[in-house]
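User: What would this chain look like folded?
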Amino acid sequence: MSDYPAEGLYRLVPVPQTSEQDEAKKRGYHLHYGDQPPATPTKDGLPVLWVQGKPTEDVLVVPMRPAVNLNRREVIVKPQTGVQYTLNGKDIAPGTHTVPGTGYTYFKVGAYATDGYITTGKYEWPFTIGEAVPATPENLWVSDKASLRPAGTEINPPAPGTSSAKSTTLSTATELRPGEN
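Assistant: Here's the prediction, encoded as structure tokens.
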């Protein structure tokens, strides 16, 4: 039996990203990369291990999804080692950024790995602020069948061949569906 419910919302908890240096310090030593030996054999009371050159393998990173406040038109990017975020293709620093534009806006937040890091694929999150067409009485879809419309509403202009049309003749271009009078 699974520990997760069969349906509902899940909360993703990001795992804190730590550097290779931080992990080495937790294990009781420091790493020194380079072609020259370290200046001292110890640092903070811990031994310093000399790694000649630079690491040859890239470190895998998984970018965290940025937080978005659509009402305030804001994108919040938390700092993450090895990851560079973009807003509509332009690099952005960690922090809060206002999405440019007014009204309906489609934008993308992306992330890619910096030097020495690698991701498992392309990371992009598309967002939309506002409505493409504002919901006003002029552009709402209303059924041409009177029984499906709120009482007292008429189609303007009326569709030919419907009960709303003033004409009693049926247009040849419009056929009634089963159940329509």
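The chain has a mean pLDDT of 77. If you want, I can go into more detail on any region.
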